[in-house]
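Review this:
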Amino acid sequence: MEVLAGKITHYYKTIGVAAVDVSNQLEIGDIIHIKGHTTDFEQKIESMQIEHKQVTKAGKGQVIGITVKDYVREHDLVYKIENE
């Protein structure tokens, strides 16, 4: 089952980091699915930062930076994959 967890607001391609506007709590270790017009992949959240500081979780309204394994675009949606 997938739950909408946020939206990509920016992609820093030189460092492979996506800025995500969080709409549902995310934590280190969560499996996410990033989906957009031409984007579609899953990955585990390995690291997460807020204002260049490492954090282990983020809640609604926060903007986080996460390392992504593939190119993402603004407005791509981030889904958290939950075990049923």
